[in-house]
Amino acid sequence: MPTDDLNGPARDPGHGGSGGLRRRTVCRGCGSDRLGLVHDFGPQPLAGEFPLVPERERSARKYPLDLTQCRACGLLQVTHLPPIEDVFHDDYRYASSTVPDLVRHFSDYAEWLAGRVPKGASILEFGCNDGILLARLRDMGFACTGVDPSKNVARIASALGLVVHTEFMTERFVRERGLAGAFDLVTCSNVLAHIDEVGSAVAGAWLALKPDGLFSIEVHDADALARDAQFETIYHEHLTYFTARTLGRMVESGGFSVVECVTTPMHGGALRLVCRRLPDASAARAVSACGESELLDASPFAAAIARCADETRALFERYGPLDAYGAAGRSQMFINMTGTAAHFARVFDDSAFRQGRYIVGTDLPILPFGGPVGRACVILAWNYAPAIARRIRGDYEAVFTLLPQRTEW
User: Terminal CA-to-CA distance of the chain, rounded, Å?
Assistant: First the structure.
């Protein structure tokens, strides 16, 4: 991977470098150097960092964050790569099973996958997190194996009786573990966006599959991101933003044919592609895709950030210090990108993984819901707003979401 070394000599093949910030200079998808800047978000903290102490007692690490687009293939991507040890580590604070909507999503997804493979099929999931999908598939009679580089969430999956390897998904991993040709299905959900050498993960999936095996992929839909100016979903840990076409090109160049493409509402808009393994991993095919956005205009992102900052300030002036609900990565980026930390008193979150910590770059505590509340609450986890609003509406004078547009619940 051609990169500029900005602050250190070493590199990890999974994501950026070990020991310093690096910048990618060619497209993650096609290798072209025709990368055009869409929007510069300025220095930002890591969305996945949840410090144990407030900002007044520390100084959050911040890295340049800009969104670029390949002018050759259209792939949207982030090019500045923080050290891998700052991104994937044993203090990873995301566990899918703590989110009720995700529990339902993965239960439904397991049923959906079960209809596409033989009974008792062998399934590999990389980026398996706490085993939320694999446990369901295992209970349905499938032979399941997981892969995840974060040891703390992998331990949760292992405690469920699942076989989990704490590794990155690569050809080398598949070969060293003797897993080549072992699986009827390989799947990953919201994982490819986190991988710098994404082609290596696709190659690992191809190698792990049996002839004619299936590769099922879920990713955030870049068309939805662009349409709704979802600026707070752009952060260092999300390296790549796929449309159906750009994802299809990538997997087809790695030896797959796309056989199914659907959209889902998860995470504010997602894509699900099912691909069939071809005999020749080097065979590039023409993609049949669901559609693609035009070359991206930067102005909606800047406008959305300014609008959300203004509306948060207006709510603060009307109701006093606000509560926020949801401490996901997008919530951290919302508060930091809009500069609105001073307008909030606290952030509620249902995950014990995050409670007792702080929003990165601020003094805002993350708390379980309950106890003192303010007059109004802004649901930052707007992709789960209906369920959250039903639970908390009676505790407030007013409950709002500000994205994709301002809504009072």
Answer: 47
